[in-house]
Amino acid sequence: QVRPIESGGGLVQAGGSLTLSCANPDASFDYRTMAWFRQTPGNEREMVAYINSSGSATFYEDSVKGRVTISRDNAKKSVYLQMHDLKSEDTAVYYCNSYRVNSGRALGSWGQGTQVTVSS
Questions:
Q1: Which residues contact 75 (CB under 8 A, 6 or more apart)?
Q2: What is the pLDDT of residues 54-108, one digit of tens each?
Q3: I want to staple 70 with a disulfide (CB 3.0 to 4.6 A). Which of 9, 21, 49, 101 is the partner?
């Protein structure tokens, strides 16, 4: 079963920046809307941003709008999340997955995620 491989997380001070990467070697990657999710202890995963298969359309949750940019490289079967002006509330484990917009559900298997910790 193909699982995404997330990387790029770390410890950063409030106001800092990070770029997360996700390699997803699934053969259907090029045709899938991809999303980034995050999860904090005791809470469900929440979708924070998604990008359509061609990269021509994106969506951001209000909590991150204006501070993050999602992008993808289909040749590398990878999706990215550039994060700026990080806040303590951005602290979470971040995951990527294919995403069905109509249902609001992730479609594939989950990877290990990458931890982002923002210190205030």
A1: none
A2: 999 999 999 999 999 999 999 999 999 999 999 999 999 999 999 999 999 999 9
A3: 49
Q: Strand, helix or coil at 113? A: coil
The pairing of strands 114-119 and 10-13 is parallel
So what's the pLDDT on residue 25? 84
**Does the pLDDT value for residue 120 go beyond 80?**
yes
Distance, in Å, from the CA atom of 14 to the CA atom of 96, rounded to the nearest integer, reads: 23
d(CA 50, CA 54): 12
Beta strands 78-83 and 18-23 are: antiparallel
- CB neighbour list of residue 32: distance below 8 Å, 6 or more residues apart: 26, 53, 98, 99, 107
pLDDT of residue 27: 83
117: pLDDT strictly greater than 80: yes
Phi, psi of 90 (to 5 degrees): -85, -10
Q: Can you tell me whether residue 75 is helix, strand or coil?
A: helix
Within 10 Å of residue 31's Cβ, how many Cβ atoms? 11
